[in-house]
Amino acid sequence: xxxxxxxxxxxxxxxxxxxxxxxxxxxxxxxxxxxxxxxxxxxxxxxxxxxxxxxxxxxxxxxxxxxxxxxxxxxxxxxxxxxxxxxxxxxxxxxxxxxxxxxxxxxxxxxxxxxxxxxxxxxxxxxxxxxxxxxxxxxxxxxxxxxxxx
Length: 150
What we know:
Layout: H1 2-5, H2 14-33, H3 40-50, E1 55-56, H4 57-64, H5 68-80, E2 84-89, E3 92-100, H6 102-122, H7 128-144
Antiparallel strand pairs: 1-3, 2-3
Helix pairs in contact: 2-6, 3-5, 3-6, 4-5
């Protein structure tokens, strides 16, 4: 029981710190991209499409680990913004693929710029070696979990 009150409590764990920081930073990022009429999940879909074009909605759902219906909903919104287009696969007419448009690439670049600006704000108090070490450590953790790292 005493451990909970001491310095070795939950706030001292990596899980707690990353989770809490992730929530705070995620909210800040969401506020920044709101002006583009986007939410973080939209940016996730844009990012996935930016890493490989002409992916079916079904493939994207698997890659993102979400329900296909969510991909459809996200794609509907992105299509309304002119950020992507749906194309029937000429080899399989039942399959609908998504590709980024020029507007989609512009939105992805704008969101990347917002993320980089937030990165700079969050790490402004760190020295360059600390920033590089943080970046490397988080990249290693992300890679181990099968998340995109670059």
